[in-house]
Design brief:
globular; binds zinc ion; about 0% strand
Amino acid sequence: MSEWSLSALVLDQVSVFVPSLLATMGSFASMLVLASLLARRRGEKRQGPPPPELKVDFFWWMINPLGRVISRIVILGIVMGTMFVVGKEFHPSIFDGFGPVMEQPRWLMLTELFILTDLTSYWSHRLCHTVPALWKFHAIHHSPKMVRWTSTARLHPVNELITYCSNILPAMLLGFPAYALGIMIPVIATYAAYSHSKWHHSLGPLRFIFTGPLYHRWHHTHSHEGGNKNFSGVFAFWDFMFGTYYMPKGRVPEVFGLDNEDMPEDFVTQLVYPFRKSPGELAANASTDPRHSSVNSVSAAE
Ligand SMILES: [Zn+2]
């Protein structure tokens, strides 16, 4: 077993920051070009200056890589701590995968991992809506009154950390390698940008299998509409299975954002917003927020 050092391991996690930032800037620029070309093709004309929400979204895109680095360091700490508690010796090779999972063909392992992470994402997302302390962080993602592809990255680093941990830790426990999750992140991020786009695609008969822009835009409406439904990231069948599917027939969502309108509109204030609430105030706010009502209601599926 090769030698390793903790400082080198932490540095490894930090070293992904610059490539991740460059990749984020590249994907933001290429999506901006693509969205402009598509808008021009559809004959859409922009009136006036870009809305201020776009500037806020840009800052969120640029802070996301930092959230990923923090998440990687926290996961490293959790894995090392768990190994210590169960009395096993830690070695970084644990991140390379192990057991029967690694004996399968690679395509099968990646397919299983993709489905598993979509399932864990469903539940972490649903918990972000139902646990008041988590909702304060996730509320930032639901604050735009105009949902578009740039809204995708409006994710607080704590929200990123919750999603990251809930995806990676169960997968690692089963023996999936961390690098495979690294392959999936750009795929999932691109699909998320598509899901947040302004198109009202329902995907036709495929809407029962895959989410899409219309599907996810309903999730960004108020809680009396689809705001407490459609938690799935890629596969719509999770919402079917767990009773949260919502696609009203013959309508498209029109009003987006939070039920109560108290989210600040600049980036820094949004960043500190969840920390400015005392636990008592947080609970009081949460209990009066209809978004935290039960999500057991039957969805108005087509
Ligand atoms: Zn949500």
